[in-house]
Amino acid sequence: NKVYPFDLMQNLVESLSKKTFMYDGGAYTKFTLFLIGHGDSEVKLLDQLKGKDEYTFNIDGTTPVPSRGEFVDNHDREPNKNDIFRNELELISNLNLMISMDSANGHLAANYDVPVITLWGHTHPYAGFTTFNYDSKNQFTVDREKFPMIPTSIYGNKPTNGYDDAMRTIKVEEIVKRVDEICEKWAED
Q1: CA–CA separation, 84 vs 89, rounded Å?
Q2: Are 101 and 140 contacting, i.e. CB atoms less than 8 angstroms apart?
Q3: In which band, very low, low, confident or very high, does the pLDDT at 74 lie, cut at 50, 70 and 90?
Q4: Which of 3, 70, 154, 188 has the greatest number of beta carbons closer than 10 A?
Q5: What confidence tens digit (pLDDT) does each residue in 124-165 have?
Q6: Is 54 exposed, middle or buried, given 0-12, 13-18 or 19+ CB atoms closer than 10 A?
Q7: Which residues pair with 29 in a beta bridge?
Q8: Per-domain residue ranges of the chain
Q9: Overall pTM > 0.90
Q10: How far apart are CA 134 and CA 113, in angstroms?
Q11: Given the DSSP bridges, would you call strands 20-23 and 139-141 parallel, antiparallel or unpaired?
């Protein structure tokens, strides 16, 4: 399993949506969160995660993402997958930070030099799938003392009895602490 449990994701989104950070000489601003996912089942989960927070946006792959304040010019047609992907890439390239499960979006962000925090379930970064130019402090893995057979396979696609809750050993508080450390570094720069 390579998916962080929904209730923990919800706690993480709620924790981050309450945070502020300092930038540009001392002004504070709330975190803006973009939840990226595709497919009907993911879209429903993203809608639940978003809740009513005005600084959290569901980027579900069905509509174009604002591109530098504009949408791709598609007034005379429905947006196609290329428009949507192009706009998602532009959004990703402008992020300050990405939190990603073992997914392509984390790799895309890393190629734009965006710091990426990755959450690893039945896979492990040492299997060779880390993000480009990764920081080991940003790699959150399952507790291997409790789950010593991790990685269960190179791709994490082979279930192992008793390992369903392995990702629960990745604590929300530790992820939030790392986000804080990255934000402190921004304030110093």
Answers
A1: 9
A2: no
A3: very low
A4: 3
A5: 888 888 888 889 999 999 999 999 998 888 887 888 899 999
A6: exposed
A7: 21
A8: 96-189
A9: no
A10: 10
A11: unpaired
DSSP per-residue string spanning 55-96: TEEEE-SSSPPPBTTB--S-TTS---HHHHHHHHHHHHHT-S
First to last CA, the chain: 37
Longest dimension (CA), the chain: 57
Task: Please state, in angstroms and rounded to a whole number, the distance separating the CA atoms of residues 6 and 74.
Answer: 34
Q: Which one-letter amino acid corresponds to residue 112?
A: Y
Residues in the chain: 189
Pair type for strands 116-120 and 98-101 = parallel
Tokens of 130: 């880390």
| Angstrom distance (rounded) from CA 124 to CA 99 | 16
- What stretches of the chain show up as alpha helix (H) in DSSP? 6-17, 40-50, 81-93, 104-111, 172-188
Cross-strand partners of 119 = 101, 140
Question: Of the ranges 25-29, 66-70, 142-146, 175-179, which one carries the lowest mean pLDDT score?
Answer: 66-70
CB burial readout 165-189, b (16+ within 10 A) else e: ebbebbebeebbebbeebbeeeeee
